[in-house]
């Protein structure tokens, strides 16, 4: 069977790419403490179930840990690279509010994300020819409608250098 | 300038060189150093390609100039990149940006702190309410228990009173004879009859 789990949409790339929380570079570790039963932890449970996959997809280098039934009330804790710890209390909150709040305090803003995307686009110019690692094409012979590579198919006689020099020499 | 084509470069050079020329240095080819020379190559003497001194001088000069210019350009570009990187990391603009970010971060942390305080207040209130509720329930349970105890005591007292009343009608050794006399004098008839309509008839034949 292709679908696994209760909400298999969480496993689709489209859903994961839709996540909009991209943490600032300073955030290194994210910890979620929540309870498996109880009305107050409901928002936190939903947050863990629906939003954590998106967050981890967008922040592949941030360590995300989940702790269950360790404290009476649920909370999030972020550890930044200068040792600062940010505590976010999520008791009784809805998962949408939690994700909005987290994005507001520790996420990159829209304009920052856009400028970063622009910078990345500028680095890689699609018009450049070069190694496959850095550019799209290596030689003009790879483009549709251009002269095919003389390494694979022989050029017509009129276009070869030796024929042209022979003709030029014969004419003089 | 030239693309390196791996092991084919030597063979290509051999093809392009004139017939009489012979390669000077040893080449990694099919034969090892212990294999004998081929019959067709027995008397072969390798001669390097002839060099025209005038041409060489001119070429050397031109190549030198060209390479110097190229090297200078490369170093210029490298320096530009490094300077840009340095400016970005530790320039005045970068400091400004860092300060701005620190400021914004402080603001956001304060916001978060306020939010936490708000939830803390709500939590304190809720915990208080729950505690009061629990206390009240406990109190009620205690009251209930006490009431039940009291009722049991009352029941017991009633029974004791009833027993005290009954004591008066007990048959003891003293009034044994008297009670026997009374019983013999008043014969009790426990027989009765009942018909289908439910009418009770106590009057029966005395035996």
TrEMBL record, chain A:
GO terms for cellular component: mitochondrial inner membrane; ribonucleoprotein complex; ribosome. Keywords: Mitochondrion, Ribonucleoprotein, Ribosomal protein. One of its GO terms (molecular function) is structural constituent of ribosome. InterPro entries: Ribosomal_mL43/mS25/NADH_DH, Ribosomal_mS25/mL61, Thioredoxin-like_sf. Residues 36-109 form the Ribosomal protein/NADH dehydrogenase domain. Gene3D superfamilies: Glutaredoxin (3.40.30.10). It comes from the Eukaryota. It is found in: Mitochondrion. Belongs to the mitochondrion-specific ribosomal protein mS25 family. PANTHER family: MITOCHONDRIAL RIBOSOMAL PROTEIN S25 (PTHR13274), SMALL RIBOSOMAL SUBUNIT PROTEIN MS25 (PTHR13274:SF2). This is Small ribosomal subunit protein mS25. It comes from Champsocephalus gunnari.
Automatic annotation (TrEMBL), chain B:
InterPro entries: Ribosomal_mS26. Residues 129-173 form a coiled coil. GO terms for cellular component: mitochondrial small ribosomal subunit. Keywords: Coiled coil, Mitochondrion, Ribonucleoprotein, Ribosomal protein, Transit peptide. The keyword Cytoplasm does not apply. The keyword Mitochondrion applies. Its main location: mitochondrion. It holds the Pfam family MRP-S26. It is found in: Mitochondrion. Belongs to the mitochondrion-specific ribosomal protein mS26 family. PANTHER family: 28S RIBOSOMAL PROTEIN S26, MITOCHONDRIAL, SMALL RIBOSOMAL SUBUNIT PROTEIN MS26. This is Small ribosomal subunit protein mS26.
